[in-house]
Hints:
Multidrug-efflux Transporter 1 Regulator Bmrr, Chain A, three-stranded antiparallel beta sheet, nine-stranded antiparallel beta sheet, 2 domains, Arc Repressor Mutant, subunit A
Amino acid sequence: xxxNGVDRSNDELxxxxxxxxxxxxxxxxxxxxxxxxxxVTELLTGSQTFSExxxxxxxxxxxxxxHLKLLVEVGVLNHTERGRYNLSRxxxxxxxxxxxxxxxxxxxxxxxxxxxxxxxxxxxxxxxxIVKEFTVSIVKLEPMRVASARAISETPEHSAWxxxxxxxxPKGLLQDIEKHPVFGFNNxxxxxxxxxxxxEFWIRVxxxxxxxxxxxxxxxxxxxFAVTTCNLKEELESEYFKKTGCFESWKKMVDWVESSKYTxxxxxxxxxxxxxxxxxxxxxxxxxxxxxx
Length: 293
């Protein structure tokens, strides 16, 4: 079906491909380069000047001029009199067709399944045990809009996740965890002598998402975080957890921050699952400790 809603027959498609195959190849080749694809991606948000594109792509003047010239020649971009570049109508249609085709493709599903399998394999091999060596990276999270689900029970993580999953899965939000990362944290924290405590999940969403039922929408501030990775099963089976009820990796993180050039921040501490749909035995978590310079 084309942009006008016309469902073209196979005979028509064959005719177009036979007649215009060489030119179609040139258009597709224009996108078959990571730098040119980066340029096109940046222009999806609006027109930009040469200097603006050079800043966001990090390309040299000669290289960027070459890529822009090619994209303009095949009609993917327009170069206006004011020295700005923008996506042409044909360019936007081409990018949309490629993106939508890939988003719904078997290949994309296979790629996601392979990544998930890699996580599971690492958990059960020496490679997965590397998390015990404890390494810390500094990550800056941008402000984000999130959907929130919370539960209070003896196992609030599972209760809150069931709420979040029931809401997010039909919307396709769990199909791309890079675009829609899932964070969690205790809310409220466990108390001595109390079996019940709270847990809250966040998932990043777009500006058009509205609250629904028990799902709230919140705007969350960003900032710097010290981040380390842990294996949930290893944490729960550790002697430290059995004695204290806390992750040993969180204790190491606090010690690391206190001995570093950073100071703790009063922003929310977070746990981010590599694969939020994994079982407890297969769950790998990134622990985010908020910090300040």
